[in-house]
Write a sequence for this structure.
């Protein structure tokens, strides 16, 4: 199968989330309509996305939940475990370490590093914060997460690449350079606010204006 | 202009980010190629997105940076300020309060609430954590951010709606119900990991296999 665009990958993630929920409820089949259940996704889009990797629902029955869940799981690379380290033991780093959902999807955060001597040695969610000097290829991390202030982000990215990570997830609000062949994803929380702001602006604009009382001519 | 899909809004956010960067560098014009600079966006997509709201680049010159920045700013509803409150003074809440970028885009976090009596009264980034009982329509919040554990998310969403917010940004890993007319956006950090995992799986699969030494027949 050829390259899938990032928006498609996001939709697959969304379908996967819905499939996990309905599987937990003990359901066997799901309609494209129910899979679509999110603003901006139509059931036609769902059928297009899923047929592109050969998964076809049955008219009137929908998709087989467990079968589809396994297919998307494999496609997203969730049928294996990833060894993840986090750099930055501040608020975002702590939030990431505390979030159990990552381990459920195969992302094992196994180490946390910080440049601040005051933070090194503290225990955070069961992990001892390690000094940056210990970030090396010895640990064979596959994904490195940057949860540092903006100014530190590029040197940290370089250190992660030197330590052999294949992918970098950047939470710092700075554009980073990584060598070809290293995957980089940026998480920009402002974007979520902007998406909300866009939607709110449209709704407000679409609301019927209050009638003005005109004076009789 | 009609409704824009969520992926398009995300791309507009991305273009806006790039335009702010090049404006800061003092550039006047930008090419669609430079605006595209992200995986999954082509310069043809940029031209399509921008022409859809009547912005056309000039061949060989590109787009006028300041003009386009203002246009996207208005479209995304960033030319005004939004009054935001955060519920949950834990790691994610603290990370949000500490992030200066929100205020730069017009999102003013003016209050933070928590159900935990131990947190109430503490000062976090200049704001005193308030008890949930004080969350009311009196403050006229426009956007409410949920940064609580999953089990608390739905009651908090209900409380925010009762307090009159128009939009909800949910960081808790739970699907929420809000009344029609209230905008809801979910931020799922696992999705970013999944996007990376997908990309890494593809790269690994695409790498040329090491040649096997065949025995002579």
């Amino acid at each position: 199968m050829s390259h899938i665009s990032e928006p498609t990958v996001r939709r697959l993630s969304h379908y996967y989330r819905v499939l996990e929920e309905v599987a937990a409820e003990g359901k066997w089949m799901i309609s494209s309509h129910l899979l679509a259940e999110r603003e901006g996704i139509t059931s036609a889009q769902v059928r297009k996305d899923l047929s592109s990797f050969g998964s076809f629902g049955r008219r009137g029955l929908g998709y087989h939940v467990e079968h589809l869940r396994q297919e998307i799981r494999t496609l997203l690379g969730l049928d294996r475990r990833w060894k993840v380290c986090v750099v930055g033991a501040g608020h975002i780093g702590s939030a990431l370490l505390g979030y159990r959902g990552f381990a459920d999807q195969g992302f094992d955060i196994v180490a946390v590093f910080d440049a601040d001597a005051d933070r090194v040695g503290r225990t955070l969610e069961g992990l001892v914060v390690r000094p940056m000097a210990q970030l090396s290829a010895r640990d064979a991390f596959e994904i490195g997460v940057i949860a540092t202030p903006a100014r530190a982000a590029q040197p940290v990215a370089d250190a992660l690449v030197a330590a052999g990570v294949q992918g970098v997830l950047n939470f710092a609000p700075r554009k980073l350079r990584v060598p070809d062949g290293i995957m980089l994803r940026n998480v920009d929380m402002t974007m979520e606010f902007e998406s909300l702001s866009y939607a709110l602006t449209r709704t407000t604009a679409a609301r019927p204006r209050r009638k003005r009382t005109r004076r009789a001519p």
User: Anything to note?
Assistant: The helical segments of chain A are 6-24, 32-36, 43-51, 65-75, 91-98, 101-104, 150-162, 189-206. The CA atoms of residues 18 and 24 of chain A lie 10 Å apart. Chain A is about 40% helix and 15% strand. The first helix of chain A runs from residue 6 to 24.
